[in-house]
Amino acid sequence: MTTANNLGKLFDLLPLHAEEGRLRNSVSEDVIISQLGSSDSATIVALFRRIFESFSLLDKHELGGGNWAFVSFPASLMARSLVAAWAVPGQRLVDEGYWEDAAFSEDQRILLHQLEAGRNRHHPTSNAMPIRFVHVAWALIRFGNVFLLHQREDKLRPDAKQYVLPGGRLRPSDCRENQPSTEILKDLSSENSCVASASLPNTLIREIEEELGLQDGIHYTFEPWRSIKPYCAVEGGGNKHALSRYEITLYAVKLTSLGETCLLNQIVADSKQLPFFTLDDLVQGKRPDGATAFIDALYQDMEGEFAELFDSIPDSSGTPYTFDKAELAVDLPSCRDMPFLRGKTGKEREVLVTLDDFEWELILFLGWCARGFSLRNVSEDVLVLGGGWVKLLNVDEVKAAKETARKLEKMDLPIVQFSGDALRLAIKPEYTYFSDQLFSYTYESSNNEGGQIDLYLKEKITRFAVLSAQQHRLNVPRNIAIVIETIHAGIDTSQVAVIRNAEKSIQKQNLDTVTKEVSRMGLRRLIKMPNNGGMSIVALNR
Asked: Rounded CA gap, 390 and 261, in Å?
């Protein structure tokens, strides 16, 4: 008897279920096998039982007694549809070429997602087997406190996270080993692929050229940073969608000066495709503007250490900072008639440079960009690129910016640097400070537990952008609270025994808590603690 005949008889033997109500019948599995009357009847029935079970079509109680009964009328329709289709030679459930035609890509993705999500969710031991193996090379490109991401392939899917690290999946063409292609394919479709491990650098080189237009050895170098533990999820771009096992290697990228210029130009050309995310954005999984990052595999691998590990990634900039240590820190003036302060905290020296309004506003704006402050009403003549870099689109402003850089350099303050037409401060962001007139604070005592400070960064308007007001709250230990309350009371701290006796520990607490926290907002220090006592709070409007 042919397969078609067997399936035709199976269709006639299927139990019935009323379209409305619970009226139904059941059929013994043994009866079905005997009625089929074929040598492979038991195999056919066992196969279809598994198919029907996988779709939850059969009543489990009846099945336990050796009988088939459908749980509902729609379940019986599903079963009959499958058997009826397979019983007719040449019958198809989809158009011919369906799985080859890109026009059906989204339909395929939805179908595969439903099947694979269900298989993964309902696996009896919660350990469903991946059927897709993906070997990935991702590039880590960091400028200061921001990291470059790239728009994903699934950019039209509203439910998909939008951005991912530059790089992508290994292709068989990335493999340059002398093996038959079928052997390579078998190796790549497995866990811990030896071919993939050897070929991922080729993947990275190809992807960076495709996505960023950069060439290995000319524009950048790279080295492995971390291979993360396998990540399994029902995922995939477009219709490449299934329970997938991702094996991802991260590579730290170091740009050359030429590479940095080329990359910045590429970002200018397509800033939506190539956004920067701050470390805090990555920790949150999204930027304040709602752009989302697909780095779930990294969260799973690094868990609570994600922020700490990412913060250890080396900077990729090919343009080194000139002012790159605490001894070279700079305070930017809050108005054009004020001096710059340069040097280590406590040993700063004034550098007075005569600046016009454009020059002063440019320096202040570059400082805000270096620190990654929130800006609004950014001028149409300016592109904020990330990592402190900006591009001026007005030709006259570009000339003026270069003249500003020369003026500052003559005053032994070469704090503006260029990469092509892009510019930034030559001061490392953590050593870029602002004069205290840009800040205010409030203090609230917490009795014996210390106190609480709210530090405010004030709104500031320039021709380039408006600095949005910001707030940062920090808790201070009891000894620091005593110092603040003593200063507020107008009492000389050097005359207070409890402060004088604990001066060294208070200085350390101030450095480790208050100063460390306020410096994140660009303020050098809140409390001045000279070695000879007489502590004071910097001149802030409270």
From this structure: 12
Beta bridge partners of 452: 444, 475
CA distances from 190 to 203, 246, 376, 515 (A): 18, 11, 49, 52
Residue with token string 């950048």: 220
The predicted-structure confidence for 385-414, as pLDDT tens digits, reads as follows 888 999 999 999 999 999 999 999 999 999
User: Does residue 112 contact residue 239 with C-beta atoms inside 8 Å?
Assistant: yes
3-state secondary structure of 89: coil
Are the CB atoms for 149 and 293 separated by under 8 Å? yes
By CB atoms closer than 10 A (0-12, 13-18, 19+), residue 289 is: exposed
Mode of pairing for the β-strands spanning 132-140 and 242-255: parallel
Domain-wise residue ranges, the chain: 3-87, 132-311, 326-433, 436-460+467-537
pLDDT higher than threshold 80 for residue 444:
yes
129 secondary structure, DSSP code: P
Cα dihedral 237→239→242→248 (10° resolution): -20
Structure tokens that stand for 4 in this block:
């078609």
- Model pTM score: 0.78
- The burial class, CB within 10 Å (0-12 / 13-18 / 19+), for 173 is exposed
Instruction: Extract the tokens encoding 301.
Output: 């691998």
Q: Output DSSP code: residue 270.
A: T
Tell me, letter by letter, the H, E, C secondary structure of 155-204. CCCCCCCCEECCEEECCHHHCCCCCCHHHHHHHHCCCCCHHHHHHHHHHH
Measured CA angle at 77 (ends 71, 102), to 5 deg: 120
Q: How far apart are alpha carbons 248 and 196 in whole angstroms?
A: 10
CB 163 within 8 A of CB 294: yes
303 DSSP assignment: G
- Contact, 442 vs 349, CB < 8 A? no
Whether the per-residue pLDDT at 542 is higher than 60: the answer is no
Mean pLDDT of 353-380: 95
Candidates 209, 235, 228; CA nearest to 152 is: 235
Instruction: For residues 56 and 188, give the distance between their C-alpha atoms in angstroms, rounded to a whole number.
Output: 34
CATH number among 3.90.79.10, 3.40.50.300, 3.40.250.10, 3.40.350.10, domain 132-311: 3.90.79.10
Beta bridge partners of residue 276, listed in sequence order = 148
Q: Give yes or no for a contact between 487 and 516, defined as CB atoms under 8 angstroms apart.
A: no
